[in-house]
Automatic annotation (TrEMBL):
Parts of the chain that traverse the membrane: 12-33
InterPro entries on file: Kinase-like_dom_sf, Prot_kinase_dom, Ser-Thr/Tyr_kinase_cat_dom, Ser/Thr_kinase_AS
GO biological process, one term: signal transduction
The entry's keywords: ATP-binding, Kinase, Membrane, Nucleotide-binding, Serine/threonine-protein kinase, Transferase, Transmembrane, Transmembrane helix
Occurrences of domain Protein kinase (ranges): 117-385
Protein name: Protein kinase domain-containing protein
Keyword Transmembrane helix: yes
Amino acid sequence: MVNSADLVTIGISAGLAIGILIASLVFCGIRWYKKHSHLRRCANERCSTALPIRTNGLDASIDSSASVSNSIAIPGSEFPAKDSHLFWWSHRHDKDQLASASGIPRYSYKDIQKATHNFTTILGQGSFGPVYKATMATGGVVAVKVLASNSKQGEKEFQTEVSLLGRLHHRNLVNLVGYCVDKGQHMLIYEFMSNGSLENLLYSEEGQGLSWEERLQIALDISHGIEYLHEGAVPPVIHRDLKSANILLDQSMRAKVADFGLSKEEVFDGRNSGLKGTYGYIDPAYISSNKFTMKSDIYSFGVIIFELITAIHPHQNLMEFVNLAAMSPDGADEILDKQLVGECKLEEVRTLASIGHKCLHKTPRKRPSIGEVSLAIARIKQRRFAKEHTMSLADSDLSRMVSRIENQQVELFEIASFKDKATE
């Protein structure tokens, strides 16, 4: 007969064995779940990298991180690059939810078709595709950018722009008022900027020309827009494609930064994003290191500053003129836009050129922050205002003095007349 003590021992041993078995099963289950979740996440990330690129050209942006050929698949991905468009559309409902979460209204294809009179009100052609002027049902006038069927800009940049501009709001950023994903079309709807791009105003033969005061204000407006992206947004945003073509002006000639398709939040993800930007505006340090930082945006802004001073396009050897001007304190006088000669104060031109040179410093860490740039440009305007105010006060004092003398002369004349009458 079994001893009661033996039964207790057997029971305890069996309980421990069962407990260890259950714990082992739970541990293995957790490991299996985590492993498969990680694999699914990695697969999704690899799929999202199979994206097309923008066409290269005079005003086109580049993205060398994308496939060289649309038929080349990303290693390790189950989806070849040539099917990236179809893959995106298979997930369009998820992406629509992302865009809707940004708070940007979605419009139907029929809404846009009606607003653009069946797409006949074309304003121009960009790297994204054609741009149309539209009058919405509410009466508001907007600009509609349509992703061309042969465009290389891609759906990722479309989604980037919608998601970023859904949370970025500043008076010097172009406002995205809606989007459309319908009938195989992708469209972005912006506030209408009646004076077009800075590039057209500077280089178009039909352009009305910009005064020095307007150029100085445009530089300040751009700096405020970038300052918001770098120092006001959370997390900060790097534009990565600053150029005169992406600076738009409203009816009051106030400048706003546009085109956020290549923009990126400054969150390190450990991945190499590839070369992005537009030739002539790309930071040389970025080309050599493939690391795009806020200081790369500063470099691009430095190029725009010299465009404002010279009205010379980066593709017309602008940097050669800039380097020559850097050799002497008054070098900016020699490259000043002919339209501005005799129409502006050279001291202000030299000060703005000095700011531009600092932005173009070959060592990124030695370039100023955008906050410092904004403050420096603002000081140019403040000094002008102070001088004008001082001159205005001087003119006012002189006017009062002349008036006082005239009054005294009248009083003396009246006294003399009174004495003459009294003598008679």
